[in-house]
Structures are given as C-alpha cells and as structure tokens.
Amino acid sequence: xxxxxxxxxxxxxxLKAKSVAATRVGAKDDPSAGTFEPQxxxxxxxxxxxxxxxxxxxxLTPTRLLEATLDEKDVKDAxxxxxxxAKLVALMAPIVQEVARHSLNSTELVLRRLISSERREExxxxxxxxxxxxxxxxxxxxxxxxxxxxxxxxxxxxxxxVPGAPETPEENDWPARAEISRSDPPPKPSRxxxxx
Length: 196
Known about the structure:
Blueprint: E1 8-14, E2 19-25, E3 34-36, H1 40-58, E4 69-70, E5 73-74, H2 82-101, E6 108-116, E7 119-126, H3 127-131, H4 139-142, E8 176-179
Parallel strand pairs: 7-8
Antiparallel strand pairs: 1-2, 2-3, 4-5, 6-7
C-alpha cells in the first residue's frame, strides 16, 4: 500500500509455510477493509513473487562508504562543516528557486506530475517545515540557507485566464496531494560548536 493512500492491499508472505496473510486497507467506514483469504492461485503467485524478491535481495553485496572528498580533501577533516553545507546549498538553491516559481502557493514547494489531461499528482512541503531545520542555528550559520530563498521569495503570479482558453495542468481538477512528513530535529549538541 502507498503510504500516502488510504486504499490498497497489504500482503504478509511466509515463504516457509507458503502462506499469505492479506489485508484490504481502507477508510474506517469502509466495510470492505480488513483481512481476507486470497484465492489459492493468488497465494501461489504471491509466494512466487516474494521468493523472487528474496532471492534478488540476497544477491546484493553489502557496501559501506569508504571515503568522501571535497576539493580533494577528506570530508571528515573539514570540521566545522559550514563550508561543506554552503557548497551543498549553492547547488540546491537554483533547483529550489525554480520549484518555488512554479508553486502556486507561496508558502509551499510543490512538485507536480501530470497523470492525464484531467488529473495530476502533487508532492509538497511547507516552507515553514524547511525553516524549522535551521532556525535554531546561530545567525551566521543560519544565513547560509538564505540562498534557498524560502524566506524572501515573493508569491508567484497567476496567469490571467483568457475566456475560452483551455485550462492548464495547474488549473485542472483538484490534484492528489501528499505532504512530505516533518522530521524530528537533530539533538542539541552537548557543547556549543566551534566558531567558524
């Protein structure tokens, strides 16, 4: 089941027992929601799919990051990391600003995917959610994120509608929207970080 959807099917496959526990996910008032017994042929097919996925994952080789460099220097020796973060922000800023220019709501960053001529899908995050990530920083560190423009960017203007003109994808039927979940802030350091 898609985490952003209220409807779907969840399957718990026991490869040893070759059994499947199936659940239909739905709204609280949906009488069809709940566990159900899949057909024998469906159980066989689901077990086969699960076995294939299990075999594929077992072939994956565990890896770990051996090194990371920035300007030919080891990142772990770059503390304090303000310079590294500033470079990352500089790379992200044009993308964030482009997304903001195409977001009709000035308080959100919105990514859209056109599903059909009459339907689109949106994933959005509130700018306030992003600002929460760095508002606790010292002013000189917080200023690094100013290039993202999530505090200062003006609301985008809407195109004036022309009578008889076809609707644009942005103006079509209500989209399916999914908000990016808020994340917990990192724990406060036990001592103030060194001045950069």
